Hints:
GO terms for molecular function: 2 iron, 2 sulfur cluster binding; metal ion binding. Residues 4-110 form the Rieske domain. It is a single chain. By secondary structure, the chain is mainly beta. The chain has one domain (2-112): Rieske [2Fe-2S] iron-sulphur domain (Rieske Iron-sulfur Protein, 3-layer Sandwich). The chain is built from no helices and ten strands. A hairpin with a 3-residue loop joins β2 (17-24) and β3 (28-37). It is globular, with a radius of gyration of 13 Å. The chain starts with a strand and ends with a strand. 25% of the residues are buried.
Amino acid sequence: MQxxxxxxxxxxxxxxxxxxxxxxxSAGMANVFAVKKDGEVFAYKNICPxxxxxxxxxxxxxxxxxxxxxxxxxxxxxxxxxxGECIAGPCAGDALTxxxxxxxxxxxxxxxxx
Length: 114
């Protein structure tokens, strides 16, 4: 597993989401996003399980209007923030791919397979 810096903990506001490109060009870049809910950070690969496309149309816009669920901008599928499980839409029953998050004094890191 490789550890990749995302941001400082305080740079991700409560109830917000943010997208990141991590990795290096030689090993390939990975697109991930993080959501802070109730002080905890949840991270997932930025890939919709239905179409294999990015979830957002606008940068850092991964949540529905109430900021209660992750939403695919292409077809409106809704996912639980804490589990990544799709609860509505064409991929109901599928789930986003979680990415482990590590908290350090420096900030937030994600752990990705080599």
